[in-house]
Design a protein that fits this description.
The structure is a single chain. The chain is mostly beta strands and about 220 residues long. The protein has a single domain (about 1-45, about 70-220), classed as Jelly Rolls, CATH 2.60.120.260. The protein is built from no helices and 14 strands. The protein has strands at about 1-5, 35-40, 85-90, 95-100, 110-115, 130-135, 140-150, 155, 155-160, 175, 175-180, 185-190, 195-205, 210-220. The strands form 4 sheets. It has a 5-stranded antiparallel beta sheet with strand order 3-6-13-9-10, with no helix packed on it. It is globular and about 40 Å long. It starts with a strand and ends with a strand.
Length: about 220
């Protein structure tokens, strides 16, 4: 089985390839990060042990043999067909519509956000954002993975940031360039201080009237 891992805003796999894989007050979120690490490996031994991956108590799915992930996000898969636990923030005059559709990778559920109005004074488009409140512990290693695409090429800002003034995000940020093809992204980060009022934020969505963004299978893990 081939695995593909991409760190820092590079797609793990476009669909169809052979691999399986805020209110923000800081307008500096328009920057880009081009550091890339790409690793691909073949795992020929996985799944050959008749005893492996069958023990549900060992953190695996007894039917699929796939290890279960302890997702710190609630409803990150949108499996219930709603955006429960997520917030679609719209700062006037910008507006957007959001819904859950079965249009994700391999037909899984995804949230679909369409920008219906923008603020011409908003340089980066941060007046529409999609986020979930969470808590963060200082010094822990976190990793956010998600799938995303747009109906036109556009860069968004993905951050783990304070859900309160001064909305600090330190270096917990990613600026992926989305295309019309589904791609998976990985954002590893640490935060210098514990804070029970943080958010995982997908921002800069109010760029163009009529532009549509899709997000699927958002997973936040920690060591």
């Amino acid at each position: 089985m081939k695995k593909a891992i991409v760190i820092l805003c590079v797609p793990v796999c476009m669909l169809g390839c052979d691999a399986d894989p805020v209110d923000v007050k800081d307008e500096a979120l328009g920057g880009s990060d081009s550091n890339v690490t790409d690793e691909t490996e073949d795992d020929t031994d996985a799944g050959t042990d008749a005893d492996a991956g069958t023990d549900a108590d060992a953190g695996t799915d007894a039917d699929s043999g796939v290890a279960e992930v302890d997702n710190l996000l609630i409803n990150g898969s949108f499996a219930d067909g709603t955006m429960n636990s997520w917030v679609l923030e719209q700062i006037a005059p910008a507006t957007a519509d959001g819904e859950v559709v079965a249009e994700g990778p391999d037909g899984i559920n995804a949230v679909k956000i369409t920008t219906t109005q923008i603020d011409p004074t908003d340089m980066y488009g941060w007046h529409v954002q999609f986020y979930q409140p969470t808590s963060i512990e200082a010094g822990k290693n976190y990793s956010l993975t998600f799938w995303a695409k747009s109906d036109q090429v556009g860069e968004i800002a993905v951050t783990c940031m304070q859900n309160h003034a001064p909305f600090e995000h330190h270096t917990a940020e990613l600026y992926p360039m989305l295309t019309t093809e589904w791609a998976q992204f990985v954002m590893p980060f640490t935060f210098p201080e514990s804070d029970p009022a943080m958010r995982i934020n997908f921002g800069n969505l109010a760029q163009t009237v009529g532009q549509t963004w899709w997000f699927a299978d958002a997973v936040l893990t920690s060591d």
